[in-house]
Specification:
6-stranded parallel beta sheet; 5-stranded mixed beta sheet; about 0% helix
Length: about 300
């Protein structure tokens, strides 16, 4: 029970609330209110605390635009968490030790507990059981370093955007992802060192920038006909076995496939300039089919 004088919860008090199935807030409290046992600010714009023993899926009110620190601390029974407000932001450690299985967020134009005001790194999520992140709504791009430390095992993108930022999914845990047809650019080191094994590229992709998949676990990829450029070291030291370069690829950077496990490479007829050290340390390479235009 939260009496009418309580204006908020301290960090210590929030973390100590580990045996609560429902919060009840005094109706005369001018600062806080409770709906279905969840504590919010009086105007319902801020989610303050979720009961640790509350189970099932949770859909936040559309008015919620911020989630407080430790709001879901040790909430191990909640399943799917959904936010529909396109301006929602998440404070550091708001999902600390929360074992939800899926998080739906509507927009990346606002902070997803990645940076605070001064650009300092924060950690909103800390749990090995978080499985899925769903990115909804119409977003313009996935920003730099967006999920380079997230533990999600699966990412589903429902939005429409043109670019995946630099190191956006660096060292991420999911093994497969499908990109929408709207994506034109995969940024530098976007999936570098990731556990990614398979990726489905959209039909509008034009550029894969330097180191985009380097040192990842990528085993399978099919390039769309729209692809025009592959940057330096883009697929270096990956377990890729075979690639076919589309007819519109005009540029491949230095060491783009160096150290990979490639066995077969098919180069299109329009690519007359092969970069230096393109296949350095590709000791398992058995066949390269080159265009007639390549004479040196």
């Amino acid at each position: 029970y939260v009496n009418k004088a309580v204006s908020g919860f301290s960090e210590n008090s929030t973390q100590s609330m580990t045996g609560v199935s429902e919060f009840v807030v005094d109706e005369n409290n001018p600062y806080l209110t409770a709906i279905d046992g969840v504590v919010y600010s009086k105007d319902l714009t801020r989610l303050v605390r979720f009961p640790t023993l509350k189970s099932g899926d949770y859909i936040a009110p559309d008015t919620v635009s911020s989630v407080a620190k430790n709001a879901f601390y040790k909430c191990n029974l909640v399943g799917r968490i959904v936010f529909n407000n396109s301006t929602v932001s998440f404070e550091e450690e708001c999902f600390y030790h929360c074992e939800f299985t899926e998080l739906n967020v509507p927009c990346l134009e606002y902070k997803l507990a990645y940076y605070l005001g001064k650009g300092e790194r924060t950690v909103a999520f800390k749990s090995d059981k978080m499985e899925k992140l769903v990115l909804t709504n119409q977003i313009k791009n996935i920003p730099e370093y967006f999920a380079d430390w997230y533990p999600f095992k699966e990412v589903e993108i429902q939005g429409s955007f043109k670019e995946i930022g630099m190191s956006a999914f660096y060292s991420s845990n999911f093994t497969e992802i499908s990109l929408p047809d709207s994506v034109e650019v995969i940024g530098q080191s976007a999936f570098s060192h990731a556990n990614l094994e398979k990726i489905y590229l959209g039909e509008s992709l034009k550029s894969i920038r330097s180191g985009a998949f380097s040192h990842s676990k990528l085993q399978e990829i099919k390039f769309p006909l729209s692809l025009e450029a592959i940057g330096d070291l883009a697929f270096s030291y990956t377990p890729l076995l075979e690639i076919t370069l589309g007819e519109n690829v005009r540029y491949i950077g230095v060491s783009a496939f160096s150290g990979s496990k490639l066995k077969k490479v098919v180069v299109n007829e329009k690519l007359a300039d092969i970069a230096e050290r393109l296949f350095d340390d590709c000791y398992e390479l058995e066949m390269i089919v080159l265009p007639d235009a390549v004479t040196d």
